[in-house]
Queue: 2 jobs
Job 1
Amino acid sequence: MKVKQIIDLIKGTVVSGTENLEYTVEMAFASDLMSDVLTVKTDNLLLLTGLVNIQAIRTAEMSDINCVVFVRNKKVTEEMIRIAKENRITIIQSPYSMFKVSGILFNAGIKPVF
Amino acid sequence: MSSEKMHFEYRVEGGNFSEAGYPSSQVKKTLKQLNVEGNVIKRTVVALYEAEVNIVAHAYRGVIAVDIDTEKIIITLTDEGPGIADIKKAMEIGYSTATPEVREMGFGAGMGLSNMNTNADKLSITSEVGTGTIVEIMNYFHK
């Protein structure tokens, strides 16, 4: 599924990085624990998280994740946007909870890693 | 210095989470420029990033030395800090001495050292309690 379709489904807003909207995502991983994200070897992954800090963006950078969804419309800082832009990472905010976003995407055919 | 060898050093400040990840980011960019295979880059920077976060989380300060030649990358992280009393126990998944602040940053679940081990071709950890810890990560570019 394309990132722009995901954005429609989760009522998302693009905070940074429109270059990945045509990109196709097959799998997603939802976690607030960055160490857990760093163990995932899958590429082309969408990260869902409620952890809004620079380390969430750094973790995406190291894991080659180019699309991060922050749930519950949590405020993204300028520094996070700067690092995301530098690494061509798209940041999306959704008003929905992690559970709801996960459920919507699962129903829409996005696969779990494990 | 031969053009086939590169050496970089970065300083890491304990407790400064806003800067954590910068050295790992720079190493990733360098390896990309050198056309190292994607999977090797990812393994290297994941191991380095976890090691870097450990310095920020546990030590007072540290130095990351990166040596690259045509065959491999060797990263040596030397910190001044409390050290690790029982390295074997620290390697166990789930064992952690991290503070609540570190956990709020998304780390401190006791997964870092084992994940470093998974992502390094060679990992060496030596530590002296009350002095500090030295972590060496080595990855080969071609298997």
Job 2
Amino acid sequence: MAQLTLVQAINQALDQEMERDERVVVLGEDVGVNGGVFRVTEGLAEKHGKHRCQNTPLDESGIMGTAIGLAMADMRPIPEIQFEGFLGPAYDQLVNHAARFRTRTRGAITIPLTVRVPVGGGIHAPELHSDSPEAIYAHTPGLKVVMPSTPHDAKGLLLASIRDPDPVVFFEPKRVYRSFREEVPEDDYEIEIGKAKVVSEGEDLTVVSWGASVFQCLEAMDNLPEDVSVELIDLRTIYPIDMDTIIASVEKTGRCVIVHEAPKTCGMGAELTARIQEHCFLSLEAPVQRVAGFDTVMPYYKLELDYLPDAARIGEGVKACLAY
Amino acid sequence: MAPEAPVTATLPAPIYGAWMMHTEGRMPRRKSYEAKIDFLQILDENGKLDARLAKDTLTDEQVVASYEQMWICREYDETAFKLQRSGRMGTYPQNKGQEAAAIGSALAMKKGADWLVPCYRENAALFMHGLPMHYILLHWMGDERGNQVPEGVNQTPISIPIGTHMLHATGIAWAMKLRGDEDSAVITYFGDGATSEGDFHGAMNFASTLQVPCVFMCQNNQWAISVPRSEQMRSPTVAQKAIAYEMPTIQVDGNDIFAVYKAVKDARDRAVDGGGPSFIEAVTYRLGDHTTADDARRYRDQAELDSWLEKDPIIRIRKYLESKDLWSEKDQKKLGERAKKIVAEVVKTAEGIEDPTTDDIFNYTFAGLCDELETQRETLRTNSLGQFPEQAGLRGRAERV
């Protein structure tokens, strides 16, 4: 098995699916010869033809809107939006159109598209290149939202997303793009959308996170006293939420800390907290603790590491929850 | 295309009727459509000036000053690139090659009265209209204070997303019209790629229907990251897009400071006289990469770049000045040293500014902070969690200790 980065694993999934299913079309700004701003689509235009890895005009609404049309006509479009901040101009098409067609037409017209979007901070990027808007799209009925944190999961989840009959927002944490490699099978495999992963088992407290923050959580766990046993869950899919895995864990540990980069208010931590108290009220030994970004505009990079939850802050959260 | 079945009596047949009468049921056909767009060049690549067209444009002093400005801004640009490469600054988009478009247009606009609504490849124009030079470095060093445009400087901060700011320019110009401001107008800068965004068309249409004093200045530098103009649009000029909005429009040699100045001056005069918006396509070239985050050699021919290096606006203006004995080797040596000194000073200023505190993340969220944000600000100050006022040390500290 090859050792791949997140970028390479996603590239491989795209390549293999383009090979397998000729309905798959990648489209977006600079995805052709340049291979996208993060080189995720590198080599696809050369191998599968420029018409299947199509450079588009600089128009996010156009990219999303035409991807909807392609999907309606039984193609499998994979639009790329260069950074999560540029989902803004595509928002209307994604939220008001892609997400609603199945319902509006009572199933007559469906939109099997997968929009790939680099997400999150921590890479010294300019303004509007570092946000974490996953909750906005999880809040949109009709969209599935996925955010893998590892190369292995990314390949399996991307293949599942492309083959999913409904629109999927596939967030790729840019901080992880080239941060490490792991073994990724060459074979075709899917990871079911809506299934979280227990990264490490533990008894005393559950930490739920996703995207790049998973690695900050791991670092925080390394710094905890040895007798503290933490169970870490990587949500992997933001919506639909895998409550079974979370409930089983919190019923066992009685304590939960949720970690995300996005602003705290109305972030996914709020939804998870509500559900945990709905399902696990009598198991809880402490209030659910959120360690999140702040309710501010994501700062430029001089202050971004102060904004993002780091191992120290997560450690504080774990300690506070344990000490309650 | 006439409907095959006869239109039933209940349908309003006259919808089709008008053009069917003239075209006998067929849409008129033309081999191709060609928009007529004027192209203005006054100073050619060899530094030769068309004196007739140059009349009433720039004085000798202005040309010398523009050349100096260009040189200083090029020095600034190359220094910024090196700062990024040496890890002292984040991503930076070089302006190299587009200085004539920036400076010529800035000269034609009225400092203090007009507004500049930029993208990010016209630094020189911003400096000429009062933005301290270290602000742009500060921005790319990841510090929002680089966007804190000083009082009295009429410009919006550089715009990172593509094409969203032209609507703001239209809005500012609309306000000028509503207030009856005299002798003021807006200029907005954007690239060829930006004209693909829907917001561009909204801005043009609003400006046109409302007849506001706005100059739309497209710096067509031929590339939107890796996408060449030919893949960006089918139209042979960008300027022709303005025809749809019934806007006076012209294509100019964007590396010719005289042509840029004249076109923008005409457009501004028209705007302040109540003539509404105008469109200018400045044909230029991005001599650098899109930003320091990419490598144009991956997608761009060296031969194409080489041909444009010869058209560098700095070369031709210098040739012109030398041909008129307005510039000497000695002047050049002095300017070179002066530019280095100015830029070194600017870098020193930008790097000398103390890092922002974490309070800076919160303080501008609203005019006044709500309790929640105050709590969060305090938790970051104290390195605590941000969950409750108690954790921030704002309440009940005694009980917890």
